[in-house]
């Protein structure tokens, strides 16, 4: 899966080892000792920061990473349906019947959206736009947004036209920790506040829009209290990052915590169809943890300076290290997460009152506030 | 954690609000939709422009000469009953939209503050009204001041969340009025301690909610009608308020809907793009007001629109979107004359109940039509019909007409009761207009200018309002002004800015004596040439003069000298702009409306005899066989030896005793012109005819005395030939120099379908064949269309053929391919207008281009820009057509006046035949008039119409067959129509 960022944490093997053992305790003690395993780092967020965009948001984390997202929408003709429209025209002219006969079943079906309607670019300082990290981040974020198909369906205007959404993501600071979750949250917030000009035309006509921006409709409308239940809104999916250390599951790890992770999981969640179910799992991916690249500690037994014997070959060194696995000397984790842990992580994320639901409602309330 | 917001939040810098922004959605033509954020930088140096205020005078921005623009609003504005200290008016958008005619009245509405908010809203709602408003703000006497309230910090208003744009704009108006009141009070206080005369600033609005809020905020406000009611001659002024905004609640509770609703704009545009709907200009047949046609680019022939319901509130001239009807509703065009006044005589303008969209009689008239079409079967060739589904652009203008006498309930002059009356427009294609007036009694029998305001779905006729009265019907002044207005001829005197462009010497201007004068630079001295001019008698604006001399090699030097107008009218000054607006001089029977001020047209430019004048000369070397050896173009100075009229010139040429050089030169010209003409004819030039008559007027009163057909002499064609030659030569030269931007004139070859009917008529009635493959073929076959019994028959056919042709038009050479340059009528590959710069703007432009082509002076950039030239062409094409129509209408009116009270029997020819009448053309007077069957006998005789043979067999007491091209004796009388008070020439069969 995507390689982690090359920016390495400058911690000594001893520090890494210490960190790992504190995190592996039950309950774990995190680097910020005030936080529990499910707690997120504090963040500052604001929306509508870019007046020229249809929607925008900025989130800054306490460690100084900061992301800015702008969403712009443009009207585009749908090429496939254009042919359909032309055929439809010919038919009706020949038969001399009402042109808009087929107009009734226009707004019924879902699945009218195309994945190409959403375009995403990620820019990270110090990276070229074809470097692996931005490309992978963009792919993962986009994949998540498109996973449910709910977003592209919203971009449908009529059979001949659709909105094309361009999401520009800009990381304002160097990528101190793995920025996936931050970018996803910022994108989520930007999409929540995105508004599209109100449509005035009907059916399959060339679209015409209200020139009053105040009349623009939200891409994700906040439903007013529905008659048949508590208010519920569909929201764009968001990715939360979780890591495993030993048997412990820790959400929203910081840079240093990631350096000792056994495994890292990106969990994409969307709001559940009914509010009682917490959140819905849209997808997940394992992320190669940066801990793989940390330098291993040298145990006394292998250190000539402390009277040990240096291993003769690298194969020999590996064998020796395996044997000393539980000695407390730091060695990069081999990776892999147990199935039970995996299931546990997903449960924690999506359960009623779980991490994802909490996050979604927190982001929603930013929009309200 | 330190955190800075990226937003420029309004909360953060409350103290310093010189920055604001405006957000809206812009849809571009190419279909892009953009969110636009505009930042506004608020200022405090926008003056109030009241002469009462000294503070603003100090802060007002200055121009580069350190001068501020003079303040507009009077320091002693007029007062009224409620506001005795004087008032400044601040109308809101609707006040301007409904009452623009009021604001234009000279006697009232001074000291008006036009807010930027209002101005922008007017611009969005109606562009024509916006232009009128801008014109008003430039009119110094009216004292209209545009106050940029949105840019001034104190009056800027931020839109509140959830507030509609309208509410926000209303609030902006109230805020501005409030600020003005406060500001003026302070200004007066600063001026003198004692002054008690503080003018009020009053908001004029018809919005009740706005007024209520204004009241609550203690802002003076009034409705437009209340305000007007307090003025002098309020009755007349109140009539001028547009009826469009009139609230529907007055009407009966459940309005009946007569017309189908229009499609939405987006639906129409999509349809037009997709080719299912079509867009074009709606034209109504002058013979049948229920039949319209729309020419659309998709088809060669126009689409027919039959009946009121299908024409769906379109008025002739509107740009409409139509939908083709299914084939079973296609019909042949009508052969019946249907006039609104005869069918709907008894309509009551006030009645709303039981009003039907198609009156019973209309329905019957249409049914007869359908029957006729059906009985004809395939022969009648039903044409595609269409219905109007929407209107892209209303081209409503002001219409001249008169009040329908029958529609007036009480015609006592003293009665001031408001009533609704019908205005019958002069233009038969325009429907009656429903007008509310308090002065019906006075308006009867007058020519009236009115405009249409709206046409709702529940009203059978459009609703309009009175603009002004032109005077008594049939009075010369009123009728002349009426036709100038109808044809949109600009007849106001030249403004001062234009007159300022004239040479300061005035009539004393002379060609400079010294050859070193800059005026002589690159100018040839042609004063020795024996030049003379030949024009209609009494002509004062002499555009052209000619000469011919024999060269030693046996060839001739021939020169055409054209008035050098471009020397006096420099591009883009006020005079040039005015001339380009007017486009052409308009000749009426008793009046000439000049394109250029008199000083130039009739004196400085005019090539008057015996004086030296600047000219632009075309000099040819021509062989005795009239072949052109070479052509040369130069600016020159000439001295015309004589100004002849056509007749004088003819007499002089014919007089063998005259053997001087001048006369011999004219003989040479005549000889050459005949050869040139023959060549042209051989090339396929058409000899067309139009019914031209001349009205002789008494010199003092210009009352018409007699009507004559114009006589054509050899000298007429002498001048014409050389002018054509000059135009063609110049066209070639200009095109060579400026292949993209030469201003040329073309005459498209008419599509064959145009001649179909005429050729069919000739074949059936006379056994003649009309070949229309080329202009040459047409010219030849027109020559064969003779009737040995009737010499006029050929002319009649030519007149009818002319009507089948396209009209010639100016164009910019880059817009057409070279083969399209052809002038069909003249059989010339390329053509332009060069020879009448005093009276045509196109010629003036051609002069400038030619001057640049011969390196006399550099070409003005505006003449090199294609879009600008295209705009000029478009305008002069329209002006040219209008001028012709106005001239014809003027002759028509005077012919009518000349025939007043007479009873003459004359020969006439039948030009067109309908199932219930026919059109007779009387060559003697050039009049064309309709004779309906019911005019022949009463009750209307039955008749059998044989459309295939163009014969109308009239039964009853008349018992007579009438056929196309037949020569008939007609009795010409005049008659004042009772219902309308309109004088009409009336023809009757003898």
Automatic annotation (TrEMBL), chain A:
One of its GO terms (biological process) is exonucleolytic trimming to generate mature 3'-end of 5.8S rRNA from tricistronic rRNA transcript (SSU-rRNA, 5.8S rRNA, LSU-rRNA). GO terms for molecular function: mRNA 3'-UTR AU-rich region binding. One of its GO terms (cellular component) is nucleolus. It comes from the Eukaryota. It is found in: Cytoplasm; Nucleus, Nucleolus. InterPro entries: Exosome_comp_Rrp42_subfam (IPR050590), PNPase/RNase_PH_dom_sf (IPR027408), Ribosomal_Su5_D2-typ_SF (IPR020568). Keywords: Cytoplasm, Exosome. Gene3D superfamilies: GHMP Kinase, N-terminal domain. Belongs to the RNase PH family. This is Ribosomal RNA-processing protein 42. The lineage of its organism: Eukaryota, Fungi, Dikarya, Ascomycota, Pezizomycotina.
TrEMBL record, chain B:
Keywords: Cytoplasm, Endonuclease, Exonuclease, Exosome, Hydrolase, Nuclease, Nucleus, RNA-binding, rRNA processing. Pfam families: OB_Dis3, PIN_4, RNB, Rrp44_CSD1, Rrp44_S1. This is Chromosome disjunction protein 3. GO terms for biological process: CUT catabolic process; nuclear mRNA surveillance of mRNA 3'-end processing; rRNA catabolic process; rRNA processing. CDD domains: PIN_Rrp44-like. The keyword Iron-sulfur does not apply. InterPro entries: Dis3_CSD2, NA-bd_OB-fold, PIN-like_dom_sf, PIN_dom, RNase_II/R, RNase_II/R_CS, RNR_Ribonuclease, Rrp44_CSD1. Residues 87-212 form the PIN domain. Its main location: cytoplasm. Belongs to the RNR ribonuclease family. Residues 523-856 form the RNB domain. It is found in: Cytoplasm; Nucleus, Nucleolus. Its cofactor is Mg(2+). It comes from the Eukaryota. GO terms for cellular component: cytoplasmic exosome (RNase complex); nuclear exosome (RNase complex); nucleolus. GO terms for molecular function: 3'-5'-RNA exonuclease activity; endonuclease activity; RNA binding.
